[in-house]
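To whoever is on call:

I kicked off a structure prediction for a single chain this morning and the downstream step that reads the tokens threw a length-mismatch warning. I double-checked the sequence; it's 154 residues and nothing unusual in it as far as I can see. Pasting both halves so you can look.
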Amino acid sequence: MPTQAPDVIATTGHVGINVTEIDRSVAFYRAILGLDVLNRSDENGKRFAFLGAHGKLVLTLWEQATSPFGVTVAGLHHLSFVVSDIAAVRSAELRVRAAGAKLRYDGIVPHREGASSGGIFFEDPDGTRLEIYAPAGANTAPAPSGTAPTCGFF
């Protein structure tokens, strides 16, 4: 019996992240990404927030974690957000630094040696690894991981 090929998924609908403190995480993601709170529950044992832009859901935060993000367990490696240009990455970098987030590299770096695309790589308050990048304009600094992808957080 012939099988029909599945529809190709072109974009992510939204991403859900477990967090340890919903209030801290909502404040962080709103400050860094400029997202609005679309829905929220502060019911004991069922705390969550839906964050988005222009009414479109982007990120859901769930207060279900009891410990920080772990890089040695299967699951999310990092979460990446694309912006229009390198100026938007620079603006995001200022917000990340102001929030006191841990930057993985010193400022904007390319995705790999010789690449024009690149951005900033940092962690949220629970250690979840994040990236904000632009498709071009990051080739003014050397790649911190040489030919390995910078988004590998090596």
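Update from on-call: the warning came from a stale cache, not from the record. Cleared it. Sanity check on the structure: The CA atoms of residues 6 and 12 lie 16 Å apart.
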